[in-house]
Amino acid sequence: MEQADLIWMNGELVPWEDAKVHVLTHALHYGTGVFEGIRAYETAAGPAIFRNEEHIDRLFKSADLYYMSVPFTREELRQATHDLIAQNGLPSCYLRPLVFRGAGVMGLNPLEAPVDVIIAAWPWGAYLGDAAKVNGVRAKVSSWRRISGDSLIPHAKASGQYLNSVLAKIETHRAGYEEGILLDSQGFVSEGTGENLFVVRDGVIYTPPQTAGILDGINRRSIIQIARDEGLELVERNIARAELYLADEVFMTGTAAELTPVREIDDHAVGGGEPGPITRRVGQVFDDALHGRDARYRSWNDVVPVAAKSA
Ligand code: PPE
To answer: Which residues' Cβ are closer than 6 Å to ligand 1?
Structure first.
């Protein structure tokens, strides 16, 4: 990975290589952390963080679902993201806030363990590769089912929960595919290892509902709004596995992946085997929104004042 100069750690900017934890950090043993993935883009008004408040809000909700109270306010964390970008001199970057149980307590009752907070920022290019964004990825349905609300909390973006995605990623990667798709516990389509999923059939866009074990993706919300603003029909409903193969178009969204078309699933070409017209149309508006080029979505761009930039 590419590095930056400074990481924000419990209220201070520290040199990248000094942002360390103790080996008895609770989260390292039990996965007791929650995190976010956020991106900042170059816009005409300067670097702007895409839907920053929504990401910070989801971080607080994830923390609360695991009974962690964040020792900073939302506004303090937002200010920290601005300071990181300004002080690291990053015009565009990926931001990774992490709230986690620190060192001091062992065993499964974490309530007495401290809660630490870090935010890192670094340049992160196309998640699944530059070619993937243009031509689409080849995906495979994983044999692993997406975690269900019976045993974990799909709506929480919690560190330990990602072992599920890690298994699906390894399995599908080793089988020669670029991404894995997980079904939910009932066998309906849920999402990618790190992306929400959309299927286009006969001009209508479908996406799995909140009850299908998905993460309530912020880019998913953006796509739903953009599709409706563009006058396209978008329906949240359960999607059968076969609909992946019968689809005219499939695409995935996530902060890291942005909008990535899927061109093949389980060795079936999706539509014509290349990104279709609805994917390209929605993708263009989405890209404009990310970069502050569409006035309708300007409130999604949290512009960072860079006057304090040191470099
Ligand atoms: N589902 C999962 C499981 C997921 O991890 C993400 C984001 C999404 C859906 C899309 O959510 P959103 O970014 O709010 O639209 N995955 C993050 C972590 C990726 C990683 O490899 O780490 C991300 O994209 O930042």
So the answer is: 37, 165, 191, 194-196, 215, 217-220, 253-257
Average pLDDT over residues 206-230: 98
Distance set, CA 72 to CA 111, 155, 303 (Å)? 17, 22, 21
Specify whether the CB–CB gap between 179 and 172 falls below 8 A. yes
What value does the mean pLDDT take over residues 283-295? 98
**Which atom belonging to ligand 1 lies closest to the Cα atom of 96?**
25
Q: What is the pTM of this model?
A: 0.97
CA 37–ligand 1 middle distance (angstroms)? 7
Residue-averaged pLDDT of the chain: 97
Q: How wide is the angle at C-alpha 273 spanned by C-alphas 215 and 220, nearest 5°?
A: 20
Q: For residue 27, what pLDDT is reported?
A: 98
- Domains of the chain in start order, with CATH, are 6-122 (3.30.470.10), 130-295 (3.20.10.10)
Q: How crowded is residue 109: how many other Cβ atoms within 10 Å of its Cβ?
A: 8
For 232, other C-beta atoms within 10 Å of its C-beta total 15
Helical ranges in the chain per DSSP H: 26-30, 52-65, 74-88, 130-135, 163-174, 218-229, 241-246, 277-290
State the distance from the centre of ligand 1 to the C-alpha of 257, rounded, in angstroms: 8
Q: What residues have CB less than 8 Å from 189, skipping those under 6 apart?
A: 181, 183, 197, 199, 208, 212, 238, 239, 240, 241, 243, 244
Percent residues over pLDDT 90 in the chain: 97
Q: Atom 16 (ligand 1): residue with closest C-alpha?
A: 194
* 194 CA from centroid of ligand 1 (Å): 4
Active-site positions?
157
Q: Hey, whose CA ends up nearest to atom 6 of ligand 1?
A: 194
In this prediction, residues 256-266 reach a mean pLDDT of 98
